[in-house]
Design a protein that fits this description.
Layout lengths: L1 H28 L3 E9 L8 E11 L3 E10 L3 E12 L2 E7 L6 E8 L2 E12 L2 E11 L3 E9 L6 E11 L1
Antiparallel strand pairs: 1-2, 1-10, 2-3, 3-4, 4-5, 5-6, 6-7, 7-8, 8-9, 9-10
Length: about 170
Amino acid sequence: MRPFAQFALAGCLLVAAGTAHADETKFLQSFKGDFAGKGTVQVTTDVPNVSVSCSFKSNATSTSLSLDGSCRGLVLVTRAISAKLNVAGAKYSGVYVGSRTGPAQLNGSRSGNAINLGIRWAQEVNGDRKARMTVEKRGENGIRLTVTDTDPKTGKNVVTSRIDLTRT
């Protein structure tokens, strides 16, 4: 009877793993498409926000998500921005390009409709190399990209970037 119980448990674990992978695939696929929107960006916590207009093309497979686009602010300034994430089990990892410091490493996991990522900047920003990024699916046709960092003067978390995108 004991070998049967182990076999049954192994079968349940395989089914659960397959379901989790299927759920992640469906979630990732929901990001596919072209998106545009507006938001604000704050390069460091001691400068004012800049309003930006952005457009992105998003692609997804069963194990990856990529966002490629650009944001324009102050009429003449345009910056290419991209995030490329790979999924292994419940863990997300990848690279964010768009910071003035160079490519940043991303690591995290999904919670509900949001991918919560730790950022490791290529150089210090706001006194350290750490921040947080959230890629949140909002309804069928929306994405919110949010970056938070710690203000070195107050020690409080500050939203340094928030961009709301809608499928076009």
